[in-house]
From TrEMBL:
It comes from Allosphingosinicella deserti. PANTHER family: HEMIN IMPORT ATP-BINDING PROTEIN HMUV. Part of the ABC transporter complex HmuTUV involved in hemin import. Responsible for energy coupling to the transport system. It holds the Pfam family ABC_tran. This is ABC transporter domain-containing protein. GO terms for molecular function: ATP binding; ATP hydrolysis activity. Transmembrane segments: none annotated. Gene3D superfamilies: P-loop containing nucleotide triphosphate hydrolases (3.40.50.300). Keywords: ATP-binding, Nucleotide-binding, Translocase, Transport. The keyword Transport applies. Residues 1-229 form the ABC transporter domain.
């Protein structure tokens, strides 16, 4: 059987944020889990912000042919969900309330997402009384519950324990396999190499490499960008930074 053509999902044309992100063209197709890696300050959050339309970015973003910037709130929820790096929510609301914020028609999907993130037993607890990792899972549940075409996730595994880091990457892989796209900023190169379908490497507000994760992680770009080197023991600082 002929392979099915992939759906063009996201097209970001000359997307930029002055002083934060250089003009960037990006096309992402479904299904796909795209990991963004790069040193601190390299522009991962800025790229996610620009894609999500946060902070008056320049350029245009089209998702399945629709201009994401012109979409109304309900349409935006179907197009994409954004998980910020800062999950420090201190609202006196329950887990179920927060997971369903702005998702009035999605009660069942919210319950399913709470189950996926193993939060059902917490559903009536206040989010401001949860641990940091638990709060992260609540906001992840909200992102998944909207069932958007595109997930934009900033360091979703930060604050998660090792088991939940792996579980979340499995969940994201399954989400991508079900026809979505996810663009995920990550600092863990090994998880990025293991799970991503595509790896984008950023430096100084630019995409400097974009390709197959294992090939990129085994090649010269990552060591040069981060100033690290790989051995049997894992990653370690390179004696002399080359980038
Ligand atoms: N609100 C802002 N206004 C101006 N410059 C900003 C703003 N936020 C970030 N920057 C700058 O933009 C650059 C990219 O920051 P960004 O947060 O996108 O990096 P990052 O790759 O996500 O970093 P990290 O790994 O530390 O989260 C940095 O030099 C940062 O100082």
């Amino acid at each position: 059987m002929e392979p099915q053509p992939m759906t063009m999902l996201l097209e970001a044309a000359a997307l930029a944020m002055p002083r934060r992100l250089d003009p960037t063209d990006l096309m992402v197709e479904t299904p796909g889990l795209v990991c963004l890696v790069g040193p601190n300050g390299s522009g991962k959050t800025s790229l996610l912000h620009a894609l999500a339309g946060i902070g008056s970015p320049l350029g245009s973003v089209r998702i399945d042919g629709k201009d994401a910037r012109r979409a109304g709130p309900a349409e935006r929820r179907r197009l994409f969900a954004y998980l910020p790096a800062n999950r420090d929510i201190a609202w006196p609301l329950t887990v179920r309330d927060v997971a369903g914020l702005g998702l009035g028609d999605y009660a069942r999907a919210v319950d399913e997402a709470l189950t996926t993130l193993e939060l059902s037993a917490f559903a009536d607890r206040r989010v401001d009384r949860l641990s940091t990792g638990e709060r992260s899972r609540v906001l992840l549940a909200r992102a998944l519950a909207a069932r958007p075409k595109l997930l934009l996730l900033d360091e979703p595994i930060a604050n998660l324990d090792p088991l939940w880091q792996l579980r979340l990457m499995d969940i994201l892989k399954a989400e991508a396999a079900s026809g979505r796209a996810a663009i995920v900023a990550l600092h863990d190169l090994d998880l990025a190499a293991r799970y991503a379908d595509r790896l984008i490497v950023m430096k100084n507000g630019q995409i400097i490499a974009d390709g197959h994760p294992r090939a990129l992680v085994a090649g010269p770009v990552i060591p040069a960008v981060f100033g690290i080197e790989h051995s049997e023991a894992g990653w370690s600082p390179a004696p002399h930074r080359t980038a």
